[in-house]
């Protein structure tokens, strides 16, 4: 007996009617989950700052840096990695709506850039780049879980055909033949949620004694090793990827995993130096 799940979720929650000639404006699950990642993440960072006695007034600035750097990085990354011809012909596409197309690898590059800029003006409070990075990856993991669930609600980034009993038929997706497919978005969402609790537990164990770079390293290795593997279960996002042995997501994940291993090794070296 063949079993599967019919996934027919409406990506829109409700629609705000036209007001003074503007609209209507659809409110989508993806946008709500994207915003929720930042809002809940801000509360987690407030908890971290209180426990480690860092200035709470810096939270708003950190949140602003993260919102801007994440969105810009994800948009630029999408066009740079998947549609470079549009980026160079019409760079305004990056900031103009609709914001269709966000690349997680680009978001990570944007977040790193934002944290470097933030940390430059916060050194006197002990908020070095690695200190803030080790804490921010906790909420980035949570936000990643929300965003991937938003992809599921949009019936996008679908998996390859499968005969597993939990295969999804994405009724709202007209691009691919409606047959059971891996719910790859759900795999990644659950993986990021588990990572959030792992990183939070590690920080809760060490707090201010957390080895510099440890949580960043665990984040990179976990997320991008699984991303590399999950890509084998997903349809390619762009047609050109069919010509490669590895798709773009996998190619970009390799240096990210190596960087994560370096951070873990470096954090271990720093611990050994302190105990020597």
From TrEMBL:
GO terms for biological process: lipoprotein biosynthetic process. Pathway: Protein modification; lipoprotein biosynthesis (diacylglyceryl transfer). It is a multi-pass membrane protein. Its EC number is 2.5.1.145. A 1,2-diacyl-sn-glycero-3-phospho-(1'-sn-glycerol) binds at residue 148. Keywords: Cell membrane, Lipoprotein, Membrane, Transferase, Transmembrane, Transmembrane helix. One of its GO terms (molecular function) is phosphatidylglycerol-prolipoprotein diacylglyceryl transferase activity. It holds the Pfam family LGT. It is found in: Cell membrane. The chain crosses the membrane at residues 29-49, 61-82, 94-117, 129-147, 184-202, 214-233, 245-265. GO terms for cellular component: plasma membrane. InterPro entries: Lgt. It is an enzyme of class 2 (transferase). Belongs to the Lgt family. Catalyzes the transfer of the diacylglyceryl group from phosphatidylglycerol to the sulfhydryl group of the N-terminal cysteine of a prolipoprotein, the first step in the formation of mature lipoproteins. This is Phosphatidylglycerol--prolipoprotein diacylglyceryl transferase. The lineage of its organism: Bacteria, Pseudomonadati, Bacteroidota, Cytophagia, Cytophagales.
